[in-house]
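Hey Z.,

So I finally got round to the beta-D-glucopyranose thing we talked about over coffee. Here's the setup:
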Amino acid sequence: MHVPGPVLPALNSQALLKGQTALVTGASSGIGRAIALALGAAGADVIVNYVASPADAEAVAEAIRSGGRRAMTVQADVANEEQVLAMFASAVREFGTVDILVSNAGRECNAPFHEMSVADWDAVINVNLRGAFLCARSAVREFLRRGARPGISVAAGKIIFTSSVHEIIPWAGHVNYAASKGGLMLLMKSLAQEVSDKRIRVNSIAPGAIRTPINTAAWSTPEAYADLMKLVPYKRIGEPDEVGRAAAWLASDFADYIVGATLVIDGGMTLYPGFESGG
Ligand code: BGC
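And the result:
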């Protein structure tokens, strides 16, 4: 069967995601917040998921509304099946459908391995991996129910997982986190392989060191920042907005042939910086 390529919209940021609805988990702060704002700026209506900070989520929604798009906040713990089902049900009720899921909610509970508690392990795996599964499952169900929306997007739906450079780089003291992101990598690829023929595009972004609350200790003092730069060939920290813009592009038809890929956004952190001087 011959499937034509997309007729691309003009390279106009407002038109990139025009007429589409995006649901972003963990969108009240950090990278999720930046992605929600970037998708709104690219023309999407946005469902801003949060778990614990309604005021921060509402501020994100308000900023999106002030740019002319619709936005609503929904509280849900992504690790909780009932809450995820209810979140998607309310998204579809209020906005008609969901075109883009950015499964972004994530957490760290760091500990030396011999001291890591089951609670530390479960907290990270439940949000980062089980949460990604539950949200992606609801999104795929909605994409299959609705089918393609010609004129809106050539794909029937898009899923972007926020992974990490730690789907590639092992991370001592963060074994639960690295395991969750390594698992997320094959969740993403296996799902992409399974649903691509339904024109559902599944990909990940893998940020490196980005200036967000999750890693304040790594950049907030000059000493910590200098140490961090030993790991970043490009010699600067990344800004949340840089990840947001990449996600908006990856969700758009400009990226229609990108399927099952991880877009690394890391200033070169995955380039074995220890070999910078020739090894
Ligand atoms: C982590 C950050 C860390 C970065 C680079 C991210 O996935 O959440 O805490 O700074 O990876 O190591």
